[in-house]
Amino acid sequence: MLDPHRLRQFVAVAKHLNITHAAAELDLTQQAVSSTIKTIERDLGVALLKRIGRRIELTDAGRILRDGAQPLLDGSSALIRAVHEVDRDRNEQLLIAHTLTVSVDEVIELVEPVRREVPLASVAVRRLADPELISALRVVQADIALRRGVTIPDGYMGSIIGYSLLRVAVSTQHPLAVERTIKLGELAGTDLILSNRPEDPYYSNFLIAACRRQGFEPPSSTVVFKGCPQLRQ
């Protein structure tokens, strides 16, 4: 049997390919993590890691264990959560996670039909960075994840539940400032200001791809504001 505590240590090592970094993430000593890896290898009778010069790499067996370990750990976390909640006196709750590019107003608008259909349902909303959405779904910290149109990860289902107008903010001196609606192609040659948040790059890529479909490559720049509207003179 695989000990979940030891398995988590192996997953950390497999992620970082570095004992020191894995130990720091787990708040353990390097010696403890190294000992755990050796124990797992002894119990399974296979080598999980190999050294190439000063680097650590996974063996074929190590890659198989890494790929299968996370679903086991996620399932364990979800089971523990379900056990803890079974005796709670509460109404049905819908857990919704959404990325930074989906506004709270949009979430409320999307949830409103659910509230009308199930008035006693409790709805909890969390804003997460895009890479955190899948983890939230895996451990049942979210029932639904909302994000802009991007590819769907393997093992998950998704569908388009709505469309929204793309709002464009331009300087009052811009020729398009007097227009109430514009076509995307009219922005050709206009500098596109994007967020460079490393935790949520998909929307920026989505916007650039939309411009390319209209036949132009948008010049772009990035801003680093967080927690407030992105503004430029």
UniProtKB/TrEMBL annotation:
**What Gene3D superfamilies would the database entry show?**
Periplasmic binding protein-like II, Winged helix-like DNA-binding domain superfamily/Winged helix DNA-binding domain
Q: Name all HTH lysR-type domain ranges.
A: 2-59
Among PROSITE patterns, the record links this protein to:
HTH_LYSR (PS50931)
Record keyword DNA repair present: no
Tagged with keyword Oxidoreductase: no
For this protein, the record's PANTHER family field holds: HTH-TYPE TRANSCRIPTIONAL REGULATOR CYNR, TRANSCRIPTIONAL DUAL REGULATOR HCAR-RELATED
Spell out the family assignment given in the record's similarity comment. Answer: Belongs to the LysR transcriptional regulatory family.
Full protein name: LysR family transcriptional regulator
This protein's species is Rhodococcus qingshengii
